[in-house]
Design a protein that fits this description.
With 98 residues, the protein is mainly alpha-helical. The protein has 4 helices and 3 strands; from the N terminus they run αβααββα. The mean pLDDT is 87.
Length: 98
């Protein structure tokens, strides 16, 4: 991991239990590669997450109320609570941790 990426992750709130949409997508795509038997379930989770994220970006009501996002003040990016994302994945048939 480069210094810029690690600095950005620190400023984005990794220490406060927040994660970006890109981190969620990356974890789900890695899980699809690691466990082919769960790839369909993880793909569906990624699709649902992307739909929800797009709605939040355009300030519409979310389709996944369990996923609450907040906007980062410095980077103007949506951040998700890591525990909520992990719980949402577990509740919907996933088995990975972000």
């Amino acid at each position: 991991m480069g210094i810029r990426l690690s600095l950005k992750k620190e400023l984005m709130g990794n220490a406060q239990g927040l994660t970006t949409a890109e981190d969620v997508r990356q974890a789900l795509s890695l899980a699809m590669k690691m466990d082919p038997t769960q790839s369909q379930a993880n793909f569906e989770l990624m699709t649902r997450f992307n739909d929800n994220h797009a709605k939040l970006l355009y300030q519409q009501s979310p389709c996944e109320p369990q996923l609450q996002a907040q906007k980062h003040r410095l980077f103007n990016e949506l951040m998700y609570n890591t525990d909520q994302v992990n719980q949402w994945i577990e509740d919907n048939g996933g088995s990975i941790l972000i």
